[in-house]
Amino acid sequence: MNRREFLKYSFAAALGLGFPMLLPSHAQAARLEKPPVHRYFLQFTDHEERPSTDFLVIHHTGFPSDKDSTAEEIHSFHQGTMKWAGIGYHYLIRKDGMIEQGRWPSLVGAHALGHNKTSVGICLAGNFNLAKPTRAQVASLCQLTAWLCQEYELDPMKRGVIVGHRDLNDTDCPGKNLYSLLKGIRQSCRETLSFHMQERGGFDHSGELHS
Ligand SMILES: [Zn+2]
């Protein structure tokens, strides 16, 4: 059941009970909370609003050695060396799991050629052809992708919604050791979101309305 169908069904059920106002307040209360995101005050040379958000693209920094990087360092590299408006990714996840804000979330990024106007770019610090992402990075990635799917009303299990950069362009990004985790990350998002949907509507596993 998608969110729209779910809301329609729940609203019909609530009306039947004579409490049509009950559902919206529950719906607000049980939304998945935004994970903590650290912000720098990065200056960009251009600000173009993204017309739509249809999918999330997962990257690694992919430097020759598997090292940690900050969003600020990537920003200097993309702006100074690449001559872009600033950091191309919307989010960077450090090796300790901290999520850092890159490009402002509503703006067009610079991370997947030909797909930037319709996607959010998430980068994990490291080279995942050489090493594996840390547990903390994977946990933060699951939290962040689930929250983004909620905010943009995306179904994480739908084909093409959570993809690796290599699915779109000629690159090995995000590295074989991160790419191989994407299936589990989609499933984790689905479980997190369906848990919150149950909380919102008061449905149990059988789909019955709680009294
Ligand atoms: Zn990439």
Question: What does the model show?
Answer:
Helices cover 36% and strands 11% of the residues. It starts with a helix and ends in a 10-residue tail after the last helix. Mean pLDDT is 87; it is low at 17-24 and 202-211. The protein is globular, with a radius of gyration of 19 Å. The protein contains six helices and six strands. The chain has a single domain, classed as Lysozyme-like, CATH 3.40.80. The protein has a six-stranded mixed β-sheet with strand order 1-4-3-5-2-6, with helices on one face. The protein has helices spanning 3-17, 22-29, 71-81, 135-152, 176-179, 182-201; strands spanning 37-38, 55-60, 91-93, 99-101, 119-124, 162-164. Helix 2 packs antiparallel against helix 6 and helix 4 (135-152) crosses helix 6. Zinc ion binds at residues 59, 165, 171, 173.
Give the helices and strands, then pairings:
Blueprint: H1 3-17, H2 22-29, E1 37-38, E2 55-60, H3 71-81, E3 91-93, E4 99-101, E5 119-124, H4 135-152, E6 162-164, H5 176-179, H6 182-201
Parallel strand pairs: 1-4, 2-5, 2-6, 3-5
Antiparallel strand pairs: 3-4
The protein binds zinc ion (ZN).
